[in-house]
Amino acid sequence: MAHLQIIKGDITKIPADAIVNAANTELKGGGGVDGAIHQAAGITALNAACAKLHGCPTGQAKVTPAFQLAAKIIIHTPGPIWRGGDNQEAKLLAACYHNSLQKAQEYHCQTVLFPSISTGVYGYPLHLAAPIAIHAIRSFPTDLSVQMVCLDEATYQAYLIADAAK
To answer: Rounded distance, CA 130 to CA 128, Å?
Structure first.
């Protein structure tokens, strides 16, 4: 079972072996955490590395170097766009966390940072997304050290509540 810590902070400023990026399916820097990670890693280098991957389906994960970030790799995982909850959103969101942790293991990482996937511009309700993320991380069979990095107080509180309810 992964060791999980919920913290508040800027995911681009925290050292770790792997940083998970809430990417879009084209793997092109967008808004929110995706844009921040591209900016901090170095837009030109990261865009070039992402272009070689030819996109990534929702729920899957692909890896690039971390370039200027304090990490070895960036794990890119496109989360689901919220469409009311009847379009496999929960299954796809859980897959984002599971497949990202799988990539972290494949790349021999010890520490992994996650943002709150799909709860920004993709509109996934935070109170529904947080329990899915917590369960997916806590149930993954690994000794990885995982930090859920929450940018704001509302996100932080949602993850604390979800973790306490597990």
So the answer is: 6
Active site residues: 34
User: Which element (helix H / strand E) includes 158?
Assistant: helix 153-165
Q: What is the DSSP letter of 59?
A: T
User: What CATH number is given to the structural domain containing 20?
Assistant: 3.40.220.10
**pTM, 2 dp:** 0.97
Q: Is the pLDDT of residue 2 over 80?
A: no
Note down the domain range covering 45: 3-165
CB 54 within 8 Å of CB 26: no
d(Cα 36, Cα 128) in Å, to the nearest integer? 24
Confidence of residue 31 (pLDDT cuts 50, 70, 90): confident
Q: Which two tokens stand for residue 4?
A: 């999980």
Q: Which amino acid is at 156?
A: Y
Tell me the pairing of strands 145-150 and 111-114.
Answer: parallel
- β-sheet bridge partners, residue 19: 74, 113
Domain count, the chain: 1
Query: Residue 76 in contact with residue 54, Cβ under 8 Å?
Result: no
DSSP state of 15: -
Do residues 104 and 112 lie in contact, with contact meaning Cβ atoms separated by under 8 Å?
A: yes
pLDDT at residue 30 is higher than 90: no
Nearest-angstrom CA–CA distance, 147 and 106: 18
